[in-house]
Design the sequence.
């Protein structure tokens, strides 16, 4: 977790706090301690504690120094302190009364032999430190090559060069004791520094390298864990975990430190279980204990012939043990039925937190609006249809009101047209043009019936002309008598 100063700066580049004012969240420095006494003022008679805690190499190493400069130093400032035949530069990680508790925890006594703070780090000191820190990666690669050429069974984890460049500390891990007297001579001649070899464990190496564990969080050894206790497989057995080396081991190759976190809780819960109940005797045979479930307070037993397990309550196991002491073997274990299904979720119901508001009135208004909109659309469609029809066009008369002779003429015409010409399907525009003169002719005829002269001039069985479009031409109008 980083602080607000670690955001992006200009042009999207990460700005970083650059040790200006310190990082209060602990994301820029490992193994930080929150100073919960920082905002509590001290009385006038009490002076602040003159020893401060300084971290080096981003928290991988910490040490205590006495402030003899008579200056008020805050957390996060870079200070120059005494080193081995020179000086070193570190960052203040803790000040005030909490330093006493940290010294007591690490068993460091307040003696005159405590190293001193020289001054606040200047720009020249910081520039020199950056030049020497840039040499650490190359030095680590060369140091590993030299150790391999000699044939030493060791693994170099980190190289830390002092700020003034006069001393280099080589952190290594090894299973057995290593004779590195010849190695120190080669390192001193190659790097021209004072060499210090420091052996660390596999867990401390993982803390220096860092990483993310199987839980999805940063490793405990690289953030807050300092005391590494031994972890055994018995811790996994007490917690009913399968002894799988791949799952129980961490990035360091050892058993995970988190196996000890809940071990005390399991041990307290197991006190209620009987200790002398590894085997119980029944009429079916001897049942052996397989596991204990502290969450359900059950003990699982199985017979030697089968792999089936029977869960028993603690009271039932105690009863069987008392019967066995009296040389009595019960007929049945009276196993408990364990339901593996998930419990059903209870329906809590609906609570109207808004108030006594009914939505029926809103629904009615919405329905009325929809009905009105539909009626408006219907009226608009009817108006559009009436406007599209031409004004001079008259409606066609129905066939029911026509005389019977005229209906027979219309029924015989399409049949003769089909016999005289094979073309049946014609475009709609031609049909409309042909129907218009028929309508005019029908309108001129009287309602009583057609005149005999028109029937003689336009007989029904007259053949069609080839260019007539499949229908007879309309009759010419009669000339007026003078």
Sequence:
């Amino acid at each position: 977790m980083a602080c607000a100063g670690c955001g992006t700066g200009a042009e999207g580049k990460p700005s970083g706090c650059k040790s200006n004012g310190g990082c209060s969240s602990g994301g820029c420095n490992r193994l930080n301690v929150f100073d919960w006494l920082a905002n509590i003022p001290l009385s006038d008679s009490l002076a602040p504690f003159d020893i401060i805690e300084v971290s080096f190499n981003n928290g991988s190493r910490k040490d205590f120094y006495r402030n003899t400069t008579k200056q008020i130093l805050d957390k996060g400032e870079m200070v120059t302190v005494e080193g081995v035949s020179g000086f070193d530069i570190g960052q203040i990680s803790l000040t005030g009364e909490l330093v006493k508790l940290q010294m007591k925890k690490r068993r460091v006594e307040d003696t005159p032999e405590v190293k001193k703070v020289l001054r606040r780090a200047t720009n020249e000191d910081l520039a020199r430190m950056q030049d020497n820190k840039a040499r650490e990666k190359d030095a680590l690669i060369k140091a590993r090559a030299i150790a391999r050429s000699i044939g030493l069974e060791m693994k170099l984890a980190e190289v830390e060069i002092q700020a003034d460049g006069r001393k280099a500390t080589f952190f290594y891990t090894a299973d057995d004791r290593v004779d590195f007297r010849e190695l120190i001579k080669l390192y001193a001649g190659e790097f021209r520094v004072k060499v210090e070899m420091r052996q660390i464990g596999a867990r401390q190496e993982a803390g220096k390298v860092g990483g993310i564990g199987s839980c999805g969080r940063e490793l405990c050894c690289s953030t807050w864990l300092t005391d590494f206790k031994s972890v055994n497989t018995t811790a996994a057995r007490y917690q009913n975990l399968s002894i799988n080396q791949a799952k129980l081991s961490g990035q360091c190759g050892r058993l995970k430190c988190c196996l000890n976190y809940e071990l005390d809780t399991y041990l307290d819960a197991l006190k209620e279980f009987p200790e002398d109940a590894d085997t119980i005797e029944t009429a079916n045979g001897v049942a052996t204990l397989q596991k204990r479930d502290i969450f359900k307070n059950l003990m699982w037993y199985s017979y030697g012939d089968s792999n089936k397990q029977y869960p028993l309550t603690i009271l039932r196991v105690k009863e069987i043990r008392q019967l066995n002491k009296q040389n009595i073997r019960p007929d049945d274990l009276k196993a408990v039925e364990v339901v593996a299904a998930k419990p059903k979720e209870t329906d809590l119901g609906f609570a109207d937190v808004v108030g006594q508001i009914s939505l029926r009135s809103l629904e009615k208004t919405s329905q009325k609006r929809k009905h009105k909109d539909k009626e408006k659309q219907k009226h608009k469609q009817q108006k559009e249809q009436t406007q599209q029809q031409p004004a001079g066009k008259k409606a066609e008369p129905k066939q029911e009101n026509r005389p019977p002779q005229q209906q027979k003429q219309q029924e015989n015409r399409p049949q003769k047209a089909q016999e005289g010409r094979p073309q049946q399907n014609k475009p709609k525009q031609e049909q409309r043009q042909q129907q218009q003169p028929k309508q005019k002719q029908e309108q001129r005829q009287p309602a009583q019936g057609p005149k005999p002269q028109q029937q003689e001039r336009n007989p029904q069985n007259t053949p069609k002309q080839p260019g007539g479009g499949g229908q007879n031409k309309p009759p010419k109008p009669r000339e007026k008598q003078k």
